[in-house]
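Justification of resources, computational component.

The compute hours requested in this renewal are based largely on the per-chain cost of generating structure records like the one below. Each record pairs the submitted sequence with a full structure-token output. That output is archived, and it is also reused by downstream analysis tasks.
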Amino acid sequence: MIDLHSHTDQSDGTFTPEELVAEAVRVGLKALAITDHDTFRGHDMAAPLAEKAGLELICGIELSTRFGGASVHLLSYFPSQPPTAEFRAWLDFLLASRRDRNRRLIERLQALGVDITLEEVEQKGRTLTARPHFARTLVEKGYAANIQDAFDKYLDESAKGYVQRQEVPIAEAIERVIAAGGVASMAHPVRVAKNNWDTLAEYAGSMSRMGMQAIEVFHSDHTPENVAYYQSLANRFGLGVTGGSDFHGGNKPLISLGTGLRGNLNVPDSVLDGLKSLV
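The structure output for this chain reads:
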């Protein structure tokens, strides 16, 4: 059993790198990829712990990008060599963009009458402060009943408090990932193009021509029908396959590492072999 999509508390998960490695060992994972948003800090902290535990740890990251006016997340993996210093330096720009969005989000929430400060939200973030940290603060202060309610009321793209982040064009992100020796994969395609399959196929074709090498076929949000269709897109456009639970710990309590949402996930070991062959 493998899981190539997980998050630590260094981005928007709740498990520390040490706790995530321990959980991977507990559930019997053969290999784990940490794919924190815009940072390698969780992976870097987990690497010596995973080696000691005999767990194969894949270096990964999840990038927020723009394509055709839509937000598309790009999973990026470095299974054979570490990312370059140039790529790591580029991440500083992405983190600065995220911090700017957070400042504007605070201003928007305050304008809506929410008593909230950036300092108290940042206390919940580590290397990176993201919307789940805002959600937890809103719950603690009584503005929402739970994390999902906070997103529905204030933080989702259709919610009254939403603030758009300045995201990089996906073509630039793909180019930088490949130049750094990595593999670029479309994350959770069920969330792309509102899962309109015809539009998604157009997107996948365009992205593959930009150099994208893979698509996340297996994910906790994907039904068997989704999996079959995304596999057909991989076959159609000559893309590799990736997959993982998108584990966030307490921020997504129904999703388990390795097995997904109520046991709906089983990523074949062969997916990792295929990923390594794409480098």
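The first strand starts at residue 2 and ends at 3. Residues 177 and 184 are 6 Å apart (CA to CA).
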